[in-house]
Amino acid sequence: MITQRMHEFTRRGVLWPWRVRAEKGDVMLRVHFTPEDLARTRISTGPQPMWELLLSTNRLRGREGDIVFGAWRRSVAARTPATTRLLTDLVPVTGYFADFLTPMTEAPSLDEALETLRRTPRGRLRTDLAILAGSRKLPAWTAELADGRPETLNTLVEAAERYFAACLAPYWARVRAGVNQERARLSAALADGGWEAALSGLHPTARWHYPVLEVGYPVEHDLYLGGRGLHLVPSFFCWGLPTTFRDVEFEPTLVYPIEHAVGWSEPDDDRKSLAALLGRTRARVLEVLGEYPGTTSDVASRTGTSISAASQQATTLRAAGLVDTRQNGQSVLHSLTPLGRALLCEN
User: What SMART domains does its record include (predicted)?
Assistant: First the structure.
């Protein structure tokens, strides 16, 4: 996959990378669909741990998005394990980093992804490391990795485990909440306007003219899905342009940045003012919907209130523009609006 430093802008009170719209002549990734591809296109069921892990190392080292990631970066800098160097050796801040590092598993599970990484075939290791070596000098230890030595792969997996535990696990509920919020937004766009609305709203650079989706990308690239469909992966730590696998043998995947609000990494104690502003019950409803969208009965269960009370509080929050409610079969699904998410993250 390829990453690139980009600029930032503000939209709807939250930060987005890049600029408001794609201009004629911009460098693009063109994704070519068939009718079968649209039928098989799906949205990730949650944050993909290895994508978030590796992209977060770029946020840790770079200065882009400082207003969003600066507090997180400062909070984890002192406890980042020394073994993280093994990861950053393979993941430059810009340019290509090895496809094998982000295996896609049936469920977005760190354990499954790490086990898949541990079993990476030697041919795949050699191919990806050779590509990486074409743009930068690799440290000596990667020669053992290219040989597929199990002990070297185990060391790399352990480095990923330590980094995740120290730098991501304390914030994972908020990462998951942000990705789930985007998943709910994308699902609503799909329900209301079909794939045209969903795909054209993926990113500020996105342009959809059936059968081709164009999005900003560091290099000119065409991705032909060939009936396999596209796996859409909203990412918390992706910043700037969307990214994808370099090798077309992998599952067609588009990882793209979600919206962010300032203050998302602040400690929970700093949210006491939210209860003073909204009232304790409404604040709790806002918080549980920040974790992931839910039906009225789900909100009632998670907040320990009655269904009627949960419905009343959701109605009040919706009237204030903090919660969005949509029909979901025979029930309704509540989710945070960008304003609600911004308020939650700033308190």
Answer: HTH_ARSR
